[in-house]
């Protein structure tokens, strides 16, 4: 797999895992991907607690409101934020918004890297925060944002529906739609590419028509020649 859009589109939430060991090499690559995510002011106010012991995974699954299936994942990585670090620079907006966005960007990188390594993953946001903090001795100033379950998938998850692009995009202002975004944006390259494609289609159709006609003509000529041959009975 190499095309980034292909990786993005084929990633799925996986909740059923085969109990199989994941190498540290793979786990570290997943966390390394997180480390390269953008963050407000490049403050990188995140930490990753890697949990792989069965009893601890089970306790975390329980804290995630009894999502017991996730305890079968090879690892559960608890992504924690340090909001104060961002608040110092950006105030309340930093603490409340950037902190969450930073961790979300890191988490998405993790899910994509896991998928590219052939691993399934699940982003768990629903859990008892205090319980998770106690279980992992997370200090008061840090906040667990998500539990990321990573493991070898034991299911073929169906793709949940997505809204079509045109229902999500406005042009220049809220609710302003465009019939042809390429024209609206004066995107000559796209318009020319479309024209080239339709011309190619027309040429293909025309060539097919000519070939069919030539075949018909050849068959007709062959028929005439057969008819002109002297009969063997004479
Ligand atoms: C912020 C956030 C929190 C989520 N929390 C949970 C969760 O607690 N439990 C769960 O099973 N899935 C959770 N998910 C996964 C979503 O249910 C899943 O991404 C969504 O249904 C789309 O499916 P897909 O990931 O296969 O595209 C969460 C996803 C996000 C982004």
Describe the protein's topology.
Layout: H1 4-10, E1 17-18, H2 24-35, E2 46-51, H3 54-63, E3 75-81, H4 83-116, E4 120-124, H5 129-135, E5 143-153, H6 181-184, H7 188-228
Antiparallel strand pairs: 1-5, 2-3, 3-5, 4-5
Helix pairs in contact: 2-4, 3-5
Bound molecules: flavin mononucleotide.
Question: Describe it for me?
Answer:
The model has no long low-confidence stretch (mean pLDDT 95). 49% of the residues lie in helices and 13% in strands. The protein is α+β, with helices and mostly antiparallel strands. Strands 1, 2, 3, 4 and 5 form a five-stranded antiparallel β-sheet that branches. The chain is elongated, with a radius of gyration of 30 Å. Bound molecules: flavin mononucleotide. Flavin mononucleotide is lined by residues 12-13, 15, 122-126, 157, 160.
Q: What ranges have pLDDT less than 50 throughout 5 or more consecutive residues?
A: none
Corresponding CATH architecture of the largest domain: 3-Layer(aba) Sandwich
Tally the structural domains. 2
Identify the overall geometry: elongated
- Label the structural class: alpha+beta
Into which percentage range does the β-strand content fall?
5-15%
| Distinct ligands | flavin mononucleotide
CATH structural fold name of the largest domain: NADH Oxidase
Cα gyration radius (Å):
30 Å
Can you identify the CATH superfamily of the largest domain? NADH Oxidase
SSE order, as H and E? HEHEHEHEHEHH
Distance between the termini: 71 Å
- DSSP E strands, number: 5
Q: Give the proportion of residues in helices.
A: 40-55%
Roughly what is the average pLDDT, rounded to an integer? 95
Q: How many distinct helices? A: 7
CATH class of the largest domain: Alpha Beta
Q: Main β-sheet: number of strands, strand sense, barrel status?
A: 5 strands, antiparallel
